[in-house]
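Hey all, quick one. A colleague (J.T.) asked me to put the S-adenosylmethionine job into the tracker so the inputs and the C-alpha cells live in one place instead of scattered across chat threads. No bug as far as I know, just bookkeeping. Sequence used:
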Amino acid sequence: MDDMSTQTIKVKTWDDLVGEEYMQEGHGPSWRAMIDQMSEADISGAKVLDFGCNRGGFLRMLYDMKPFKNAVGVDIATDSVAVANAQRGTRPIHYGHNDELSAHKGSFDYAFSHEVVYLLPDMDAHAREIYDALKPGGVYYLVIGEYAENPLWPRWYNVVHEFSPVPPQNYSLNDIASSFDKAGFAIAVNRLNCHGFFSYQAGGDRYIKNPLELVKFMTEYMMMFRLQKKA
Ligand SMILES: C[S@@+](CC[C@H](N)C(=O)[O-])C[C@H]1O[C@@H](n2cnc3c(N)ncnc32)[C@H](O)[C@@H]1O
C-alpha cells in the first residue's frame, strides 16, 4: 500500500475535485461546533496543528474565536496549502506539506482534524504520528462523519471513490479508538453538537438527498473524539 504521508497531490486542490458542495464555507457549522465543544476556554499560550487543513479555514476561524500562540496546518495537496498561506492575513499560522510535520516533534499542545481520517490508509500510523507531534498531555480533537456505522456512508463511499485522488477507507469508530488506544492515548468521544441552521441545496446533492439526511448528518452522525496523549 502507498504511504500517503509522503504523497503530494499537485494537480488540483480538493475543492476543485469535489466542487461547490465541499467548499470550505460549507464546513463552517461543524468547525464552529468543534471550537465550542473543546474542553479548553483559553488556548492563548498554545501551539496548534490542523492535520488535513485544505485551504486553512479551520485555523483561521479558531484563531478568530479562540486566539492561540501559533499554529501549523498540513495537507498533502500543495495547491490548497498555497491558497491557505495566501489567505492567513496577519494570523500566526504557517501552512505546509505533511513532510514538515517531522520538524515539529513533541511541540503541539493541541491537534485537530476535520473530515480527514477516512482518507488515511493506515490509522495506526496516523495515531503514532499525532502522538509524536504532541507534547505529553497534549490533546487531539478528531472529527469524523465518514465511518462504517453511519448509515449514509455506504452510499457516500462509492461517491468518494469515484472522484477522490485518495481512496476512502472504511473504518469503524472502534477502529479509530483501537488505533489511538494502542498509540498511548486516553480516549473520550461524543457527538459533534452542531447548532443553528444548515444550508441546504434544493433537490439535494450527490451526498445529501433530502433535508432529513442533512439534519441527521449534522446533528447525529458527526463524531468528535478527544484523544489525550498519556503523560
Ligand atoms: C474532506 S477534506 C477536509 C478538509 C478540511 N479539514 C476541512 O475541514 O475543510 C480532506 C482533506 O484531507 C487532505 N488529505 C487527504 N489525505 C491526506 C493525508 N494523508 N495527509 C494530510 N492530508 C490529507 C485532502 O487533501 C483534503 O484537504
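Adding what we noticed when we looked at it: Residues 4-5, 9, 14, 24, 27, 52-54, 58, 75-77, 80, 98, 114-116, 119-120, 166 surround S-adenosylmethionine (CB under 6 Å). The helical segments are 14-18, 28-37, 57-65, 78-87, 123-133, 153-163, 173-183, 211-221.
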